Amino acid sequence: MVRKSAKAAAASASRSSSKRVAPDKHTPSRQSKRAKVTPAKYVEPDSDDVSEETQDVKVSDFDADSRDPSSESNSNETSEEDVEPKKGTLKGRPAKRMLPIHTKQVDEKELWKSGAKLPPGTQLIMKKPKARDAGDTPYSDDTIHPNTMLFLEDLAANNERQWLKLHDLDYRAALQDFTKFLETLSQKMGEFDETIPELPVKDLIFRIYRDVRFSKSQIPYKTHLSAAFSRTGRKGPYAAYYVQIQPGGESFVGGGLWNPEAEPLRLLRRDIDRKPHKIKRVLTDEGLRNVFFGGIDDDEKKAVRAFTNQSSNRSTALKRHPKGYAHDHKDIDLLRLKSFTLGTKLSDDEVVGAKGLDRIAGLVSSMVPFITYLNSVVMPDEDSSDSSDDEEGDGDDSGGGEDDGDA
């Protein structure tokens, strides 16, 4: 009879022998799991394609020239120690910044638009904006540079805030060029009209930004650069000389009073009614006739007609006679005016280059008699007051007429 202890030993031996056979058929489950956890895609590759893809992420335009060539040559010689995983990381897994970033070609103008979006992880590389090169023509204080005209042309074609932000350096270069030109022109103004002081350019130049609050057109910027010269700069009650730079033959030189307030307008109409010979003598001046009226003859009627047909004068004139003056007044064409201005356009060749300053200064000098007359009426000097102004009635009782507000 076999003892129980012998049976237990035999059973134990059979069980242990079955466990020893298992390694010949299967690999340990723990070891197989480790092999699956380390896929090839997480190991730092040796291929050139992947290294080029990650190179754009690590190197910028700023440090491209400061890289160590030796570090690049040894980048593919990676030992097993180099890929030793850190605690809590998978073996060979690169840092987050080393992951490849998708690149996409995007229009620069689109990026400046409100609400512009890019796919997540997109790398965006933009060239640093630079001002347009001066080329063979250096900038000068007494000329308008061709780049200023080119900038205004581009602004007219891309009149958007986003575009101007991207080309801010071109705008500043054009503004500086125009500012220096105005400083030189301001010195010449004193030679023609002693009443015009040399004021800071900031008191002469107009802003390029448009006031769109009450305008149907919401274009944010003017497509020209302009300034006005008077005893108080671009603002004030005095008649002024006006200079505008705009490409495409739209540059303009003129002067006078555009839409003056009620009191200056009343004084001008009163002077025309009482002493029409004063304004007619100015309008028949040879300089004005040759420059602004096309060289007409020395004839008062022709001069008055040419003056009232000036575009800014005609566009703001009353349709009927003004209140207080008869409709058949002998000088009704002058009395209907609400603006008293002169002006002429200039081609780009007349503005840009060495001849531009002399051309603009010559136009300004021809307007001196006209500007002087307007200021003598609306803002007379104390020592030039004429007591004979009250010899005749003021003509305000000659019947009804159109109110200025009904133009």
TrEMBL record:
List, as start-end ranges, the regions of compositional bias called Basic and acidic residues. 55-70
Sequence ranges of Acidic residues compositional bias: 45-54, 380-407
The Low complexity compositionally biased stretches are 7-20
Organism superkingdom: Eukaryota
Entry-linked Pfam families? DUF2461
What segment(s) does the record annotate as region Disordered?
Answer: 1-95, 379-407
The UniProt transmembrane annotation reads none
Q: Protein name, please? A: Uncharacterized protein
